[in-house]
């Protein structure tokens, strides 16, 4: 090792040592661990059989620190992942067009977005994604899987699919395109029953839901089915604005319970919709979906039909870090209006209806139509 490299290494170590020394009491309690960290950095820099940048080591240390929280929702995001997350929030990104969920530690396709690379290639709802660009997805968290499938428009990604009933993995090479998530689909069903499906909560979702309701009202809607099945959540603000459409004015939508700052209480500000509503939920309904479903159930303004929700009752904030990296950190838990903590518990529907895997008949939707037909007679 050259004299210059040794001097640079010593400078890095002493800089890190000085930063940690400022912690005072923290140092007294954790000095041996910090010394171990600095020693490991120095040993890797000087003894590892291949050169490793200090940036890579520090990024690894930060990632390990966040992983040490044992919180599946707190994640260190490198610049590329942070960029993808911001694209997801705004609803437009470079990707392959798959809406996915987590089922028994597997990444499962909820549905391909029409006219996207995944749909054109023949990937179907129910397909299990077993690898992405050579990485095994068994036990992989949803955010990582989604991030791997996204990237610059025009680049390629290889996705391995295991179709139910088959033993061989199908490989798909997909070219990423600019994807706009169609978060809202709406239509008029029989008997003046409106139907709105929301696939994700983005910045644009509240406006899209209000527009869909307005269009259905013009067609004479007397009851509404609001489908939140397999909706993994999204923006807290979007969830509050959408719940506000249904919850009576002045009533609580959600409590946000922080550790080191005053709790927040979000209340409805606009008149409620005023027609019978059924909300469809299942095990893929999580986070923001559960905020909406919990508020509507607690105030009795909708009947929940389907299966128990996922049970994600914690709130994440996104922090921008130096170098365009980011930190998604759990900062609070949320409680329903009746102060129910649903984290790791989920919300049980008012009417439980199981949907058999592979069935072409949507039993949950049929039950919702039956309930509304009785209410709007």
Task: Record keyword descriptors for this entry.
377 residues, alpha+beta, Pdz3 Domain, 2-enoyl-CoA Hydratase, Chain A, domain 1, six-stranded mixed sheet, 10 helices, 19 strands, 27% strand, serine protease, PDZ_6, serine-type peptidase activity
Strand and helix layout:
Blueprint: H1 3-21, H2 25-47, H3 54-67, E1 75-77, H4 79-90, E2 92-95, E3 98-103, E4 106-112, H5 117-121, E5 128-132, E6 135-136, H6 142-149, E7 156-162, E8 170-175, E9 177-180, E10 184-188, E11 193-198, H7 205-218, E12 223-227, H8 236-243, E13 252-258, E14 264-267, E15 277-281, H9 288-298, E16 303-306, E17 314-321, E18 325-335, E19 351-352, H10 363-375
Parallel strand pairs: 11-12, 12-15, 15-16, 16-19
Antiparallel strand pairs: 1-18, 2-9, 3-4, 4-5, 5-6, 5-7, 7-8, 10-11, 13-14, 13-18, 17-18
Helix pairs in contact: 1-2, 7-8, 8-9
Transmembrane segments: 6-27
GO molecular function, one term: endopeptidase activity
EC number: 3.4.21.-
What does it look like?
This protein has 377 residues and is α+β, with helices and mostly antiparallel strands. The protein folds into 3 domains: 3-52; 92-179, Roll (Pdz3 Domain); 184-375, 2-enoyl-CoA Hydratase, Chain A, domain 1 (Alpha-Beta Complex), CATH 3.90.226.10. 34% of the residues lie in helices and 27% in strands. The chain contains 10 helices and 19 strands. The strands form 4 sheets. Strands 3, 4, 5, 6, 7 and 8 form a 6-stranded antiparallel sheet that branches. The chain has a 6-stranded mixed sheet with strand order 10-11-12-15-16-19, sandwiched between helices. It is globular and about 80 Å long.
